[in-house]
Amino acid sequence: MVRRRPEPEYGKHAPDYAQASKRRRGGESKEDISYLFIKPVTKKEAPDYLDIISHPMDLSTIRDKARRMEYKSRDDFRHDVYQIVFNAHKYNDRRNPGIPPLADQLLELCDFLLDQYDAELTEAEAGIE
Fold it and tell me: How many CA atoms lie within 13 A of 99 on its CB side?
C-alpha cells in the first residue's frame, strides 16, 4: 500500500487558491506568507498573467539578483519586493482577493527586517562602488 502525505493547508487568507500548492514545494506552512511568491507565475497557473503584468517579479529572482550582487542599495532590493506587491494587487484584486494581503505582509516583513538591520546595511552600502 502506498501512503501519501496529506496536502498541507496553505495561507489562511487564500483558502480558495489551492492550486498554488501544486507548484510550491518545501517547508511551507499556512503561516508562511511567501509561498505564493517564491517562483515566477507560469502560463499554466495564469495564462493571461504576462498580458496584464509587464514587470514580473518573484522571490527566487530577487535571491538570484542578490547572489549576483546586482543590488547596489536596499532601495533597489525593496523596489523588487514592492514589485511583487504591486503585481499581486494588479492581477489578483478581483480574481483572488486573498492574495494581495499576503503580498502586503511580505512587504511589511521586508521593511521590518531592513529597519532591524539598518546599521549593517548602511555599512555594506558604504562599501559598494
Answer: 21
